[in-house]
UniProtKB/TrEMBL annotation:
Keywords: ATP-binding, Nucleotide-binding, Transport
Occurrences of domain ABC transporter (ranges): 22-247
Family: Belongs to the ABC transporter superfamily.
Gene Ontology MF term list: ATP binding
Protein name per UniProt: ABC transporter ATP-binding protein
Highest taxon above the source species: Bacteria
Statement: the UniProt record of this protein carries the keyword Protease: no
The UniProt record lists the keyword Ribonucleoprotein: no
Family annotation (Pfam families): ABC_tran
InterPro entries: AAA+_ATPase, ABC_transporter-like_ATP-bd, ABC_transporter-like_CS, ABC_transpr_TagH-like, Bact_Polysacc_Export_ATP-bd, P-loop_NTPase
Length: 247
């Protein structure tokens, strides 16, 4: 079967402390010129893997080991410095859920704006408008013509989730299902992800919660220090991660 996500020798380089003040020594020795490699590091390097359509993949590893960076590379928000990442299909990023919202616009206007940014037509959004807003919950429904500046952070996340959960895109990227919202919202997130997976979507989930990972994912990638250490079942990836943590 043709892969839907394909990473080949994937790597990206960041700059630590971009806004670091020049030290006095640097000012004198280099007359203010910065060393072009200063603070550069590879949060991810030499990653190669393939994901088939309909696969559910959990990404595990310690804090700061490159998991969210990998999701952002798959989403196309970051561009690799080495290797390639190819995604054959559009991506629904359940990542920064209120990203793209403009505080000056109402909930209604933001729904059209963000839906449009993700490639949905205004006809599609008009047709699904009531469904999306009701999915976001009663509070958002009542405030749909109020500017988003007056929304609580939970309301923004709910509206963002409602829009992105309605994308028909085949690839679903999720960073920590349990990280946002109240208990009722989390239950809704779980039910939605289950419904989307039953439709045969492909999932890449980053999480520190073993229960979420084993509930949603069959396959697991274990990353350490930006390298892919295990590409196997989710149980194998979790076992390798637990082993490394005990050492
Ligand atoms: N825009 C950026 N510029 C510079 N460094 C960054 C940037 N984004 C992330 N980093 C650094 O890159 C490394 C990988 O970060 P990333 O968020 O991918 O880790 P993670 O595995 O998702 O961590 P966590 O489990 O804590 O969410 C970390 O050292 C982080 O501090």
């Amino acid at each position: 079967m043709a892969a839907i996500i394909e990473a080949d020798g994937l790597g990206i380089r960041f700059v630590r402390n971009r806004r670091r003040q020049l030290r006095l020594r640097e000012l004198i020795v280099r007359r203010g010129a910065r060393d072009p490699d200063a603070g550069r590091f590879w949060p991810l390097r030499d990653l190669s893997f393939r994901v088939e359509p309909g696969e559910t993949v959990g990404v595990v590893g310690r804090n700061g080991t490159g998991k969210s960076t990998l999701l952002r590379l798959i989403a196309g928000v970051l561009i690799p410095d080495e290797g390639t990442i190819a995604v054959h299909g559009r991506v629904a990023p359940l990542l920064e859920l209120s990203a793209g919202f403009s505080g000056d616009l109402t909930g209604r206007e933001n729904l059209y704006l963000v839906g449009g940014l993700h490639g949905l037509s205004s006809a599609y959004l008009r047709r699904h408008f009531d469904e999306i807003v009701s999915f976001a919950g009663e509070q958002v429904e009542r405030a749909i013509d109020t500017s988003v500046r007056h929304y609580s952070s939970g309301m923004k996340v709910r509206l963002g989730f409602a829009v992105i959960a309605h994308l028909p895109h085949p690839v679903l990227l999720v960073d920590e299902v349990t990280a946002v919202g109240d208990a009722e919202f989390r239950a809704k997130c779980y039910a939605t992800i289950e419904r989307l997976l039953a439709e045969g979507r492909t999932l890449v989930l980053v999480s520190h919660n073993d229960k979420d990972l084993t509930r949603f994912c069959r396959r697991g990638l274990y990353l350490d220090a930006g390298r892919l250490i295990v590409d196997g079942t989710i149980d194998e990836a979790l076992a390798a991660y637990a082993d490394a943590a005990q050492r």
